[in-house]
Amino acid sequence: MPIIVNEKDKTFTLQTKNTSYQLKVDRHGFLLHLYYGSKVEDQNLDYLVIPVDRGFSGNPYEAGEDRAYSLDTLPLEYPTDGVGDYRINAVLVLSGGANKAVDLRFHSFKQKMGKYQLPGQPALYDETGQEAETLEIVLKDSLLGLEVTLLYGIFPADDIITRAILFCNASSLELNICRAKSASLDIPYGEWDFVHFHGRHNMERIFERNSLPHGITSFGSRRGTSSHQHNPFIIICDKKTTEFTGICYGMNLVYSGSFKAEAEIDQTGLLRLNMGINDDGFNWRLKPGEIFMTPEAVLSFSKEGFSKLSHNYHNVYRNCLCRGSYKQCRRPIVINNWEATYFDFDSKKLLEIAKEAALLGIDMLVMDDGWFGKRSNDKSSLGDWVVNDEKLPGGLKPLVDSIDGLGMKFGIWFEPEMVSEDSDLCRNHPDWVLKVPGREPVRSRSQLVLDISREDVRDYLIKSISKVLDSANIEYVKWDMNRSISDWFSNKLPDEQQGELMHRYVLGLYSLLEHFVQKYPHILFEGCSGGGGRFDPAMLYYHPLIWCSDNTDAIERLKIQYGTSFAYPVAAVSSHVSAVPNHQTGRVTSLKTRAVVAMSGNFGYELNPALLSEEEKEEIKTQICLFKKYHDILHNGLYYRLSDPFKERFSAWMMVLGDGSEALLNIVVNNAEANPKHLFVKLKGLNENDCYFIDDKKYTGASLMNAGFAIKNACEDYLSLQFYLKRE
Length: 728
Hints:
The protein is built from twelve helices and 39 strands. The chain has 728 residues and is an alpha+beta fold. The strands form seven sheets. Strands 7, 8, 9, 10, 12, 13, 15, 16, 20 and 21 form a ten-stranded antiparallel beta sheet that branches. An eight-stranded parallel beta barrel has the order 22-23-24-27-28-29-30-31, surrounded by four helices. A hairpin with a 5-residue loop joins strand 3 (19-25) and strand 4 (31-38). The longest helix is centred in the last third of the chain and has 23 residues, at 614-636. The two termini are 39 Å apart.
């Protein structure tokens, strides 16, 4: 059973296929965290808690003279501020303008079949309603009249446990929630490394592993988005953990706004980890009877290294987070006109690109930025979602009908959350812009931010964008967002609620997205934020694929896609073959290498096919056939990282169908060497006792995984190799 309640011992044990997670209500009503790790039977693990008087660690009043009992040293499930625990905590509440200690004690619990949901926010779901289960634990602060419900969702087959928190004001006074983490996790012993994924525009989700020191390690985003700079995913691992051995914990926040993750090694060596909405400037006014819900956090544990942890996340995100008709099926192979034309296009140019693309076997043309208002550069017209008749005479329908006539589909770019100062929208509704009164706003990419926390702004966007989508047979939308947010002030909110704006903005975004995905279920929505600036689980709930990075250089993408793969499945990654010299780096790589890298994602092209040679066009036809042939392996197979592109001169990765019957091995040489050593790659995920064919030569699974696969004479810069494995 996923949830085991022992009322005698007052323990709650959450069981997945390979893991156990145990809580206990102690003698004073505090909820302790006893264990999270490899699966154990229904054993009371409270012997792991060994109270010791550490000195200068105070004691709850009801503990009497028991100086060993201190909230400052106990492993707590949801630690709070002001009650004697001096470590990082999950909750801070103000009442009457004063900081009030939050003293949460156990009140009640419920078990439910199926997975809880968070109305208005993305969360994992269980379509069957039979496998996942929910545990609700209610804690109360009787003085404040605050009820806090800890929600746990258990996905046994995927070794996934989700957490979220409900705050209910059961008092007659207003409360202000100033910190509300989605999850906190105490691990009582170990020597730990901390893995996170930092970056910048054009270089997102870069893997970094550091030793955790005593004290607090903190990172996050204050940019209004999950950001290019830090991804809301962290891993805690043993110092000896590798891709395929050792223990590790993952925590991923299902949130697209500002967030904070913190880890602290305390005086006793206990590790506390928490994650949630960034509390810098956050202040949620909770009136009597109202409820506040945190975003969801997704936790997983592996004793088989990073690879197994990644598989847990990949499986649950593909099956229980992504939605819609494109959730599992093959997505169209697209050609995007951005790098082919930038703003300089019209119907004739687009149709020429489409005609060439159709001959190559490409499925869809996506028209990028520049089709609306008076848009000829990035300085005007955002918000004026009206077709530019000079570029597209007669509107969208003639162009789309012509492209449909070629046997292709049509997609379009929007940036709904932004507005140009030089736009009719900004001139007519200056109060719709985020702007601090009395100050000039911060510009970024010559644009300002619409206050989508406002219902009237969302109504305008729904009406204007729907009119465009209804005007022609549009089957794909690229939803972009091209700046970090500042000037946090809404003309719609009273002063005492301005601390809610950052979160209300995100809730407004979710409301918009939900409206469009429900109204247009036939449209495939792609997420984008200057590339990968909002690549997070919450976006996958609305967009089954996200543009991985504006950096389309194949060699740089090896590092970007490597980091992305730790939490996010290949099926979520948009990756295109672009022209050379590459527009971001100037690097020249072969068409084959660009395709091998881009195939580990939603495959497409970002170039002008009319500029290709006949030989290149034939090669693209072959690439498209191969991608279609390998699609199930690429998008549904188990993903294995076989090398570290930051440390080795080659990058190797593979995908294997779950039954081990087929696989695809990919290798790219990062740097050529004179008189190079041969490359030996140990494969993973095959069946040891089966035989596999590679280029008509037979190998045993055991030999490929234990002895390895040899590549000789890999002396060409950016050489790429792709091998298809088929079980005998």
